[in-house]
Amino acid sequence: MRGAIGKGVIVRRSDFREGGVYALPDGRQLIASESGSWFKFYDPLAWKYQGPALYEIAGAIQGEIPGKPTSPGLLTSMGRPTQWRVEDLVDQGQTAASFGVR
């Protein structure tokens, strides 16, 4: 597991909370939303205005890029692999309500 940044706690895939706030190593904060048995991650403004998710957990979405398999735990964006993994997300101990959104 990678080291935690700030005051957050490193999480595993099974630890995500609906509406929980998680940070990437670059400082970007995301709000988690359960979608069946997996999670999507939203920018706070996208969450507030019901916009599209920025990231999903790899392997849980349809239409992955043919010939480019993704490993479990990799975050994808619009079906494309990213540099981020589930282990990179750090629980900030907040919820979407702390951004004034529900």
Tell me about this structure.
The chain is mostly beta strands. The longest helix has 5 residues, at about 45-50. It is about 5% helix and about 35% strand. The chain is built from one helix and eight strands. Residues about 1-10 and about 60-70 have low confidence and may be disordered.
Write the layout of secondary structure elements.
Elements: E1 9-10, E2 20-23, E3 29-35, E4 38-42, H1 44-48, E5 55-57, E6 74-77, E7 80-85, E8 90-95
Antiparallel strand pairs: 1-8, 2-3, 2-8, 3-4, 4-5, 5-6, 6-7
Quick take:
The chain is mainly beta and 102 residues long. It is built from one helix and eight strands.
Mean pLDDT: 77
Largest beta-sheet characterization: 8 strands, antiparallel
- Per DSSP, the total helix count is 1
Rg over CA atoms, rounded to whole Å, is: 13 Å
Q: For the largest sheet, list the strands in their spatial order.
A: 1-8-2-3-4-5-6-7
In total, how many beta strands?
8
> Which structural category do the helix and sheet elements fall into?
mainly beta
| Beta-strand proportion | 35-45%
Low-confidence segments, given as residue ranges, are 1-8, 60-68
Throw out a few tags for this protein.
5% helix; disordered N terminus; 8 strands; 102 residues; globular; mainly beta
